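JOB MANIFEST
job_type = single_chain_structure
chain_count = 1
residues = 475
[input]
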Amino acid sequence: MARATTTFVCQSCGASYGRWQGKCESCGAWNTIAEESVAATGIGGAPSKGAARGGKTRGRAFVLAGLDGVNDDAPRTETQVGELDRVFGGGLVKGSVILIGGDPGIGKSTLLIQASARLARMGHRVVYISGEEAVGQVRLRAERLALTASPVELAAETNVEDIVATLTEGPPPRLVVIDSIQTMWTDTVESAPGTVSQVRSAAQILIRYAKKSGAAVILVGHVTKDGQIAGPRVVEHMVDAVMSFEGEGGHHFRILRAVKNRFGPTDEIGVFEMTGKGLREVPNPSELFLAGRDLGAPGTAVFAGMEGTRPVLVEIQALVAPSTLGTPRRAVVGWDPARLSMVLAVLDAHCGVRLGSHDVYLNVAGGLRIAEPAADLAVAAALVSSLTGAVLPADAVYFGEVSLSGAVRPVAQAAARLKEAKKLGFTKAVVPEIARGESSEPGLATQAVTNLSTLVADIAASGVARERPKAAAGE
């Protein structure tokens, strides 16, 4: 019988200590250290350190393979969900383990049951293990999504050893979905499910099964209040890919983003729309983000951005209002607040736009989060438009990075941005100087901007021109 050892493990970061203490020295969290018992055989059945030091346990020799081997199976298996395959890097890799996290109710289970059903219809064996719902509850979701005819194998189980024993019977499955990893538990750890030791040990057993059998395993993970995947960070290092399923409660679309991917890019996104019949793929998200925009309001500019290899056009909304507070407010949704502070400083220092006594509100329409600095030019245009009351052209797009000297610097993949703008009906693009010659689209005029002060002067002049006829009519 394995001898149990007692350790004190932080439930936030997974650091272990020999005795209890109030504050974790690793992550700084208070009252997160709990007592856990671990079998002396080690996590996942590995020999204990004491046995290794005693020299009584010897390693087992294994066969080494070369790089010139031939794989019999296809390197990837497409799930027939185009947006999901895009984020995965072209499909599921044999023996890969993917961790998907997201807020409760965001649609993780709906997405995975749809992908499982499409993969099962192609003739592959797919197993869906639910640790949070009964089999009947999963069937109710399948009935609502009209997926009951798909040959997906269901089970409601939380013991990892029983799950692995069941999966080894019959042919190896192509896909195994574990919903969720926080509900799984193993006999090798004497602690409650959801604790750091249980999550780490259960994940290690499932990863070892995936590597030996060749089945792709998708683990669903809970998230904390700040949006991070709950559990020890070591699990994210153990898996092959980490995906984040994002979405705002007030919007009907969801975004699947790759945080880590050993077999594909990490800058791709997949866009889905939540409907009454499940998640629907959005092959052209630019039309979704630009739908219903107000064409005659000042303070709005269309930004031509890039998400991986996909160009995405999104509306930047800005509101500049006089402040009654000693310290004006700066509210940002969907963009970097530090980047906004830099653009405001450049406008003040090099363009004469004084916003020190104004509240500034910036929003990326649709709930999309932008991380690239190419949005500087669109943000600056929206801010100046809101301040002066000048309405920007509805058929114009903006992109370019603003430096601290006020110069507009070129950005990557300008041709793809301009091509997407032309496809959606835009006729004008305000771009950096070097990007003007990259447009080969007929009917798309490009205005080169070398300095931010030039753009500010053009917007201010158009605002004055719009006000003059009104003043003349009043006279």
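[summary]
The longest strand covers residues 310-322.
The CA atoms of residues 74 and 94 lie 8 Å apart.
exit_status = 0
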